[in-house]
């Protein structure tokens, strides 16, 4: 049997039926739109005479007892999420953008027979509706507006999804606007993200950091080990890269005398997408002159803990599944080599040979592409240690081979002063004592170029302009980077696509 002859599955029939029903409803609603316009009314007026909002009315008059009146006349608008037409009295539930709702009661006694008939004929679920009338409490004690005037504020020509049925993940991701209409959690995430960003900026301001903006289009990609997106500038007739990190430009700012600098930005990495990775994501990076990886770890802990206070009112946050997670106190700091040695049951040091590490990787079934000492150590550490890190933990002191922008450790040969912060088993951020020696930085870039020539698509490119900036002198500094989307994951327990308002989907 060919594909053309294969009978449709039950799910395909359901989808087709839903599409046909939506198309039919659209036709009916478009006819109502035409009738509205033909009658001299407006289906999409430029404005309606609102005097207040649904949340404001609830705050002012939520105390009304059943059958009590306020004496206050209001004009407000919202989206219709419930509609019941019964005889001479219609009940409408209006929803504001924050999810607050209020009942509107449209009665023939108050609006007239003709107006009520028009209401029943022309108004649908999903429409934005303006109503004017007195704020009252119904006989059942529901806060309401007893309508004397009504007007369509925006006619919806497609029906809303069933408000009593949970949207599929596919619909939530592709049609986030529907998710925002029907689901409290989606609306709350937008507010949580805004509170988080405001908290980050507040903490930085209290420490005299300045927020700057750096280029998204770059002639040389750098600042991270990642595969870039490539584009072309017609104006300059040159290949450009979407930013994978703002690091090299923020360090130029430090060279120029902006001693404490940060940026909340969009980064783009042409890599895989999963529950903790997105090709486009929000990143925070900050650099502090005369700091190091210890001072920047303290700053990062404060940033995260203050964000938790802003969002949850406590260092203990409650995740979507009900789990309570404690972000308070002083966070653990462990050594990468020490924790790997303890977990593997053998001593592993910066001097352990590639052959010995490869033997261990083969024994454990750990595959490492273009293996060197640093990559083997990091992959083995992830295999043996990562999953057991449940409480907030700074993993300190990384192999030099995998950290080309980081200062060599002040007392341990073969490692650099770098940490990664892990929250409940996933990496939240990273911090460095920054490499500011232009001679050593050039050597590191040259080594990266060799790796790129050998086929490493994530290796950095030699950036002569950045090296020139370093040659003018960059003060000793600490730097950090943290994914904003991942910070939201730590605060809410949700996957990365839930934390992004409009995630990229295929």
From TrEMBL:
UniProt-listed Pfam families: tRNA-synt_2 (PF00152), tRNA_anti-codon (PF01336)
Ligand binding (Mg(2+) 2): 427
Residues engaged in binding Mg(2+) 1: 420, 427
Coiled coil: none
GO MF annotations in UniProt: ATP binding; lysine-tRNA ligase activity; magnesium ion binding; tRNA binding
Cofactor descriptive note: Binds 3 Mg(2+) ions per subunit.
NCBIfam families membership: lysS_bact (TIGR00499), PRK00484.1 (NF001756)
Protein name: Lysine--tRNA ligase
Gene: lysS
